[in-house]
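Sequence only, no structure available. Ideas?
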Amino acid sequence: MGKEIRIVAFVGPSGTGKSHRAQMVAKSKGINYIIDDAILIHNNKLVAGTSAKRANTRIESVKRALFSFDGQADEMKKAIKAKKPKAILILGTSDDMISKIVKNLDLPMPSETVYIEDVSSPQEIALAKSVRMSEGKHVIPVPTFEIKKDFSGYLLDPLQIFRWKGRGTAPYMTEKSIIRPTFSYLGNYIISDNALRSIIEYSSRNIEGIYKIQKIKIENYQDGLIAYIDVMLEYGSNLMKIMEELKVNARKEIDRLTAMNVLDIQVTAKGLHVPGEDET
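Reply:
I predicted one. Tokens follow.
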């Protein structure tokens, strides 16, 4: 398959900035398709594959990047056949890795190889290595919304936590440490349900008609989360309008502060607060 496809290799050790410069190299070579860490990218859009950076171990991530798992290579070959690219830029950490990738995908050997040293200065490579070693940051050369579902919960910055105990009390903000497991290739962060509850509470604080949040339940899935919110509303308020506004605000704040994929937010009115009367 694909004997007519022109293959250009882009080679450099892990953490030297290949993915950061992949689009630039592809454009300079007149190439619209990129294979990087087991995904096929066309004009900044992910069109096939699942990133090797989702792997739970380094060994698994390498195997995925080489298309070594059952069915993985077949899926990519099918996508390449459907898209009919004239040329593909393939990223790898070595010439040997490129050879294994093209062999597994039944692609021709590269007609040209670009090395990271050809497009980056020693200072730029050293800086990229330093960021990888000290912060564990990896680059995927597609916009965030393209991979959000696959990387729900993978973050690059500290998470700001907001607290609010109800109407009449002032909100305050703190910062929590976000945990990155040492085995994660990408830098997988674990965000506690309490942190997500705090964000939802914060998102409700300026909505007129909400007296307080009574309960928030978070269900986490591999591709995102579902939040169930029980609220107590002010008597005489427009229930449907308020609950819809809370759904919109909560989704927006979770997206802005965590980059987690929100599958659904369900809001239920569990009570009414009448001024001058005790809560029931």
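DSSP finds nine helices and eleven strands in the chain.
Hope that gets you unstuck.
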